[in-house]
Amino acid sequence: MFSVLQDLGWFFRREKRRYTIGLVVLIIAGIVELLPPRLLGSAIDEIVRSTITTASLIKYIAMIIALLLLIYWITYIWMRSLFGGSNLVERLLRTRFMNHLLTLTPSFFERNRTGDLMARATNDIRAVSVTVGFGMLTLVDSTIFFAVVLLAMGFLVSWKLTLAAVLPLPLIAVAMVIYGRAIHDRYTLAQDAFGDMNDQVLESVSGVRVIRAYVQERLDEKRFGAITDDVYRKNMAVARVDSFFEPTIRFCVGLSYIIGLTYGIYLVLRNQITLGDLVSFNMYLGMIVWPMFAIGELINVMQRGGASLERIDETLNAVPDVRDPDHTVAVSEPGMIEFNNVTFRYPSSSIDNLTGISLSLSKGETLGVVGRTGSGKSTLLKQLLHEYPTGTGDIHISGVPIEKISLDRLHSWMGYVPQEQILFSKTVRENIQFGLVGASDEKILGAITTAAFRSDLDTLESGLDTLVGERGVSLSGGQKQRVSLSRAFIAEPEILILDDALSAVDARTEAQIVDNIRSQRAGKTTLISTHRLSAVEHADQIIVLDNGRIIERGTHAELLELNGWYREQYERQQVENNLG
């Protein structure tokens, strides 16, 4: 049960001073709280003996008030220390969690759902923060404070009465062990279900237009209702076990009160303790109620925190498929790009996605990659991003194997526009500045002009300050593509990778963008994959892929002479353009 505290040892060592102060002051607070009941018992004994005076009564009242003020002050100290630590570990874990996600490769996100990762970053981290705050409070109160109260009851009142009153306590220990195991298992299932629900909400919100277009609102409601019912059932399973904690403790505390009161009256009548002692004892017994509850809360919190930390660690312990080598080779700038008999297979694939790819691209040249859908165009371009472990064969940049180049250095050369444009829920300006942080409006407008987006900008309500909405929902497909292109252009990358990035614009706009690329990227390398052959007619070399293999290669004119797939596709597109 307490393994979660061992796993968080790094945090407690880091915040040793905070927790030393907090726990020591908490223990002092528990000891000081024992004094008012003892003073009250002494006052009652003086009343019974008729020896109390006005001066002694004022003395008792003043001492109790002073103790209450002292308790108030030291309670503030330990609460600030412990619960401040709770907020701190939440911030540290969330930062570490997010930073680690940014290091992970696409294969990790293919295996893990976004909704579940969000649940881990929110609910699970919150459960761990409760463990290091409220959990430490219940740990001290259910052990040290509990022991201090028992010692006070035994030494200051009566050991006989104390032993009799604590007879029901072993029942609590047995029940807590049983409940704790059940809480851990059920809470893990509940958190998994919460992740599923998060994922469904994300899909429904992002796909709301498709849902409405296909009139699937009622079906989506049913699907979401089934998921929320599952979350409800699993959380109710946790609540059913959780609800046993308090009744069990109250039952045992009630037995303690009955035993304490019955046996205490017997001892008073036998003159073995005074009436004041009995009153003090019952006050101590009332104080011991919280430590008994704390035992239940401790097990509950530790089991939840342990289950959540296991889920968080599962993500934090995930190792990226691609990491920097122990010894990188410094490359000042990218020169020739070479593929030497490269064969590659995705981790989730059962067949090779690229087979025997060999090509070379000199610095400043443009490569066109064409082929039917699913032929491996995107897969080929992504090899330069090094997001997946390389397969067989070699990929060199400036004569250096890509595996020996630092990932940060490699990615700093790249400008990548994928098939699916990802825009952030910010303004047009901020989305473009993502390619060059702090870029001036002059540079932004230059990139926009290159992407043939200048005329569209004037139609937007607030120009560069227009909010694009989540994933660019307020923009058309062509506008989203051109904002993404602007983001890549503004970085002026040494290697520009356009993965079917012109598919949503018309032929005239495409021609304008291609002309701008040719004129402004002289001396820099460009790779373009496309279905429209007009986008790569100007390329220095073009390769045609089919089932991950190069079946044709050459310039536009050379490929037309081959009378193969390229010529057939080119003529078909020319006919379509003429008919259009």
From TrEMBL:
Keywords: ATP-binding, Cell membrane, Membrane, Nucleotide-binding, Transmembrane, Transmembrane helix, Transport. The keyword Transmembrane helix applies. SMART domains: AAA. InterPro entries: AAA+_ATPase, ABC1_TM_dom, ABC1_TM_sf, ABC_transporter-like_ATP-bd, ABC_transporter-like_CS, P-loop_NTPase, Type_1_exporter. CDD domains: ABC_6TM_TmrB_like. Residues 337-572 form the ABC transporter domain. It is found in: Cell membrane. Residues 21-304 form the ABC transmembrane type-1 domain. One of its GO terms (cellular component) is plasma membrane. It comes from the Bacteria. PROSITE patterns: ABC_TM1F, ABC_TRANSPORTER_1, ABC_TRANSPORTER_2. GO terms for molecular function: ABC-type oligopeptide transporter activity; ATP binding; ATP hydrolysis activity. It is a multi-pass membrane protein. The chain crosses the membrane at residues 21-40, 60-79, 127-155, 161-179, 249-269, 281-301. PANTHER family: ATP-BINDING CASSETTE SUB-FAMILY B MEMBER 10, MITOCHONDRIAL, ATP-DEPENDENT PERMEASE MDL1, MITOCHONDRIAL. This is Multidrug resistance-like ATP-binding protein mdlA.
